[in-house]
Specification:
Blueprint lengths: L2 H13 L14 H20 L8 E9 L15 E8 L4 E6 L4 H11 L5 E4 L8 H4 L1 E4 L2 E2 L2 E2 L6 H14 L10 H13 L5 H10 L3 H4 L2
Helix pairs in contact: 1-2, 1-7, 2-6, 5-6
Protein backbone atom coordinates (compact mmCIF):
# COMPACT_ATOMS: atom_id res chain seq x y z
CA UNK A 1 0.00 0.00 0.00
CA UNK A 2 1.28 3.46 -0.92
CA UNK A 3 2.39 5.82 1.83
CA UNK A 4 -0.28 8.32 0.83
CA UNK A 5 -2.95 5.64 1.23
CA UNK A 6 -1.64 4.69 4.67
CA UNK A 7 -1.76 8.32 5.81
CA UNK A 8 -5.31 8.69 4.51
CA UNK A 9 -6.37 5.56 6.41
CA UNK A 10 -4.64 6.85 9.54
CA UNK A 11 -6.67 10.03 9.22
CA UNK A 12 -9.89 7.98 9.01
CA UNK A 13 -8.76 5.94 12.04
CA UNK A 14 -8.10 9.06 14.10
CA UNK A 15 -11.57 10.33 13.21
CA UNK A 16 -13.05 7.04 14.41
CA UNK A 17 -14.47 5.88 11.07
CA UNK A 18 -14.96 2.07 11.13
CA UNK A 19 -13.62 0.07 8.20
CA UNK A 20 -17.09 -1.07 7.07
CA UNK A 21 -18.11 2.56 6.52
CA UNK A 22 -15.23 3.08 4.09
CA UNK A 23 -16.23 0.45 1.56
CA UNK A 24 -16.89 3.10 -1.12
CA UNK A 25 -14.35 5.73 -0.10
CA UNK A 26 -11.21 3.94 1.11
CA UNK A 27 -8.01 3.78 -1.01
CA UNK A 28 -7.96 0.01 -0.41
CA UNK A 29 -10.32 -2.94 0.14
CA UNK A 30 -12.28 -3.20 3.39
CA UNK A 31 -10.19 -6.24 4.33
CA UNK A 32 -6.96 -4.26 3.83
CA UNK A 33 -8.36 -1.38 5.86
CA UNK A 34 -9.25 -3.78 8.67
CA UNK A 35 -5.70 -5.19 8.67
CA UNK A 36 -4.19 -1.71 8.72
CA UNK A 37 -6.48 -0.60 11.56
CA UNK A 38 -5.51 -3.77 13.43
CA UNK A 39 -1.83 -2.90 13.02
CA UNK A 40 -2.47 0.54 14.49
CA UNK A 41 -4.31 -0.95 17.46
CA UNK A 42 -1.53 -3.48 18.06
CA UNK A 43 0.97 -0.62 18.01
CA UNK A 44 -1.05 1.22 20.66
CA UNK A 45 -1.29 -1.99 22.69
CA UNK A 46 2.51 -2.37 22.59
CA UNK A 47 2.91 1.27 23.60
CA UNK A 48 0.63 0.70 26.61
CA UNK A 49 2.42 -2.43 27.82
CA UNK A 50 6.09 -1.56 27.29
CA UNK A 51 8.03 0.93 29.40
CA UNK A 52 4.95 2.12 31.27
CA UNK A 53 5.82 3.59 34.65
CA UNK A 54 3.61 2.54 37.60
CA UNK A 55 0.90 5.02 38.51
CA UNK A 56 1.09 6.88 41.80
CA UNK A 57 -0.86 9.49 43.71
CA UNK A 58 -4.66 9.29 43.86
CA UNK A 59 -5.85 6.25 41.92
CA UNK A 60 -9.40 5.07 41.23
CA UNK A 61 -9.94 1.30 40.79
CA UNK A 62 -12.99 -0.44 39.37
CA UNK A 63 -14.23 -3.35 37.25
CA UNK A 64 -16.93 -3.65 34.61
CA UNK A 65 -18.26 -5.98 31.91
CA UNK A 66 -18.22 -5.39 28.15
CA UNK A 67 -20.51 -7.18 25.72
CA UNK A 68 -23.97 -6.95 24.23
CA UNK A 69 -27.18 -8.17 25.81
CA UNK A 70 -27.80 -11.90 25.78
CA UNK A 71 -30.64 -13.84 27.39
CA UNK A 72 -29.79 -15.85 30.46
CA UNK A 73 -27.69 -15.10 33.51
CA UNK A 74 -26.96 -11.45 34.24
CA UNK A 75 -24.00 -9.88 36.03
CA UNK A 76 -20.42 -11.09 36.37
CA UNK A 77 -21.11 -14.63 35.23
CA UNK A 78 -23.11 -13.70 32.13
CA UNK A 79 -22.24 -15.55 28.92
CA UNK A 80 -20.30 -13.65 26.27
CA UNK A 81 -19.19 -10.88 28.60
CA UNK A 82 -15.58 -9.71 29.00
CA UNK A 83 -14.57 -8.56 32.48
CA UNK A 84 -12.25 -5.56 32.55
CA UNK A 85 -10.31 -4.07 35.45
CA UNK A 86 -9.33 -0.43 35.29
CA UNK A 87 -7.05 2.06 37.05
CA UNK A 88 -7.30 5.83 36.68
CA UNK A 89 -4.83 8.29 38.13
CA UNK A 90 -6.78 11.41 38.96
CA UNK A 91 -5.91 14.25 36.57
CA UNK A 92 -3.78 11.71 34.69
CA UNK A 93 -4.01 8.52 32.71
CA UNK A 94 -6.18 5.42 32.59
CA UNK A 95 -5.15 1.79 32.16
CA UNK A 96 -7.54 -1.09 31.57
CA UNK A 97 -7.02 -4.84 31.34
CA UNK A 98 -9.27 -7.76 30.38
CA UNK A 99 -9.22 -10.35 33.17
CA UNK A 100 -10.44 -13.96 33.02
CA UNK A 101 -12.48 -13.65 36.21
CA UNK A 102 -13.50 -11.07 38.76
CA UNK A 103 -11.34 -12.36 41.58
CA UNK A 104 -8.88 -11.01 44.11
CA UNK A 105 -5.81 -12.66 42.60
CA UNK A 106 -6.01 -11.06 39.16
CA UNK A 107 -6.96 -7.63 40.48
CA UNK A 108 -4.23 -7.43 43.13
CA UNK A 109 -1.59 -8.67 40.68
CA UNK A 110 -2.47 -5.85 38.27
CA UNK A 111 -2.53 -3.32 41.10
CA UNK A 112 0.93 -4.44 42.20
CA UNK A 113 2.35 -4.24 38.67
CA UNK A 114 0.80 -0.90 37.74
CA UNK A 115 0.81 1.25 40.88
CA UNK A 116 3.43 2.39 43.36
CA UNK A 117 3.21 1.54 47.06
CA UNK A 118 2.04 4.48 49.14
CA UNK A 119 -0.62 5.56 46.65
CA UNK A 120 -4.09 6.67 47.69
CA UNK A 121 -6.63 4.15 46.39
CA UNK A 122 -10.32 4.84 45.86
CA UNK A 123 -12.46 1.72 45.37
CA UNK A 124 -15.97 0.44 45.83
CA UNK A 125 -16.92 -1.93 48.65
CA UNK A 126 -15.80 -5.15 46.94
CA UNK A 127 -13.97 -7.21 49.56
CA UNK A 128 -11.05 -7.99 47.21
CA UNK A 129 -9.79 -4.45 47.84
CA UNK A 130 -9.69 -4.86 51.63
CA UNK A 131 -5.93 -5.47 51.76
CA UNK A 132 -5.05 -2.22 49.96
CA UNK A 133 -4.63 -0.45 53.30
CA UNK A 134 -1.37 -2.42 53.64
CA UNK A 135 -0.11 -1.08 50.30
CA UNK A 136 -1.15 2.55 50.81
CA UNK A 137 -4.10 4.63 51.93
CA UNK A 138 -7.48 3.17 51.02
CA UNK A 139 -10.77 5.03 50.73
CA UNK A 140 -13.91 2.92 50.30
CA UNK A 141 -16.61 4.67 48.28
CA UNK A 142 -20.03 3.64 49.51
CA UNK A 143 -23.11 4.18 47.38
CA UNK A 144 -26.82 4.55 47.94
CA UNK A 145 -29.12 3.94 44.96
CA UNK A 146 -26.11 4.02 42.65
CA UNK A 147 -24.79 7.38 43.86
CA UNK A 148 -21.77 7.96 46.16
CA UNK A 149 -22.52 8.82 49.76
CA UNK A 150 -20.40 11.78 50.78
CA UNK A 151 -17.66 13.49 48.80
CA UNK A 152 -15.53 10.45 47.91
CA UNK A 153 -16.15 8.95 44.47
CA UNK A 154 -14.77 6.92 41.58
CA UNK A 155 -16.41 9.07 38.92
CA UNK A 156 -13.26 9.21 36.82
CA UNK A 157 -12.95 5.52 36.05
CA UNK A 158 -16.73 5.17 35.75
CA UNK A 159 -16.64 7.99 33.22
CA UNK A 160 -14.04 6.07 31.23
CA UNK A 161 -16.27 2.99 31.19
CA UNK A 162 -19.09 5.08 29.74
CA UNK A 163 -16.74 6.62 27.16
CA UNK A 164 -15.37 3.22 26.11
CA UNK A 165 -18.73 1.49 25.75
CA UNK A 166 -20.16 4.39 23.78
CA UNK A 167 -17.16 4.33 21.41
CA UNK A 168 -17.34 0.55 20.87
CA UNK A 169 -21.05 0.62 20.06
CA UNK A 170 -20.39 1.74 16.47
CA UNK A 171 -18.43 -1.43 15.69
CA UNK A 172 -21.50 -3.65 16.11
CA UNK A 173 -19.52 -6.18 18.14
CA UNK A 174 -15.81 -6.88 18.59
CA UNK A 175 -14.28 -10.35 18.37
CA UNK A 176 -13.06 -11.51 21.77
CA UNK A 177 -9.53 -12.23 20.49
CA UNK A 178 -9.19 -8.62 19.29
CA UNK A 179 -10.82 -6.97 22.30
CA UNK A 180 -7.50 -6.26 24.13
CA UNK A 181 -6.18 -4.12 21.27
CA UNK A 182 -9.48 -2.23 20.98
CA UNK A 183 -9.25 -1.58 24.73
CA UNK A 184 -5.69 -0.32 24.32
CA UNK A 185 -6.92 2.05 21.60
CA UNK A 186 -9.62 3.40 23.90
CA UNK A 187 -7.13 4.00 26.71
CA UNK A 188 -4.83 5.83 24.30
CA UNK A 189 -7.64 7.98 22.94
CA UNK A 190 -8.84 8.83 26.44
CA UNK A 191 -5.34 9.63 27.71
CA UNK A 192 -4.70 11.97 24.74
CA UNK A 193 -8.23 13.33 24.42
CA UNK A 194 -7.02 16.94 24.42
CA UNK A 195 -4.38 16.35 21.72
CA UNK A 196 -4.28 15.80 17.97
CA UNK A 197 -3.87 12.03 17.68
CA UNK A 198 -2.67 12.02 14.07
CA UNK A 199 0.97 13.12 14.66
CA UNK A 200 1.17 11.08 17.87
CA UNK A 201 0.10 7.82 16.27
CA UNK A 202 2.08 8.50 13.09
CA UNK A 203 5.24 8.81 15.19
CA UNK A 204 4.49 5.51 16.93
CA UNK A 205 3.88 3.76 13.60
CA UNK A 206 7.11 5.11 12.14
CA UNK A 207 9.06 3.56 15.01
CA UNK A 208 7.26 0.20 14.70
CA UNK A 209 7.54 -2.47 12.02
CA UNK A 210 3.86 -2.36 11.08
CA UNK A 211 4.14 -5.21 8.56
CA UNK A 212 5.20 -7.56 11.35
CA UNK A 213 2.05 -6.92 13.39
CA UNK A 214 -0.48 -6.52 10.60
CA UNK A 215 -1.50 -10.18 10.44
Amino acid sequence: MKESAKRKLLEYFVLGVPAYRLRFRAPASVRTVERFYRAIRKTLWIHQHIDSEPLNGSIECDETCFGGYRPGKRGWGAAGKIIVFGLLKRNGTVRAFPIPARDKEHVLDLLSENTRPGSLYFTDEWRAYASLSVRGEHVVVRKERGKPKGRDHINGIEGFWSYAKHWLYQYRGVAKKFFPIYLAELCYRFNHRDEDLYPLILKLLQSTHVEEIAQ
